[in-house]
Amino acid sequence: MKRFSLAFATAVAVSAVTAATAFAHVEFKSSTPGKGKTASTHISTVTVTFSGPIRKGTLKVTGPGAKTYSNGSGGRDPRKISRLRVPMKSGLKAGSYKASWTITAADGHAEKGSFTFKLK
Fold first, then answer.
1. Which terminus of the chain, N or C, has fewer Cβ atoms within 10 Å?
2. Residue 52 domain-assigned (yes or no)
């Protein structure tokens, strides 16, 4: 009976860990420039890193004058599947910028968000 109880308890524990992992969603982890931070106007890319792999996504940066300062809509970084990146246009101005992102995580869950940063 002890063997059965131990085997049952082990099976329940493994199932609980597997279920928790399957239902965990990808979350915003970090960005470059950092959320709420100030960087130089000489940046060439903006990145957003997530807590797990993503299938696809977009990243757009707007700034002074409500203009778009990113080149294109960005996408998943081919060197790191948990990161979005977008190249920036040249001639960036000092001021406040907003990076807006959308992703589809590896588990199929769609998410979106944004963060702000400043350039000086």
1. N
2. yes
- Any domain includes 15: no
* CA distance to 33, 75, 116, per residue, from 61 (Å): 12, 13, 9
The number of domains in the chain is: 1
* Mean pLDDT, rounded, for 107-118: 97
Burial of 102 (0-12, 13-18, 19+ CB in 10 A): middle
Residue 16: per-residue pLDDT: 45
Range of the structural domain that residue 58 is part of: 26-119
Q: Which residues pair with 46 in a beta bridge?
A: 86
DSSP string, the chain: -HHHHHHHHHHHHHHHHHHHHHTPPP-EEEEESPTT-EE-TT--EEEEEESS-EEEEEEEEE-GGG-B-BSTT-EE-TT-TTEEEEEBPSSPPSEEEEEEEEEEETTS-EEEEEEEEEE-
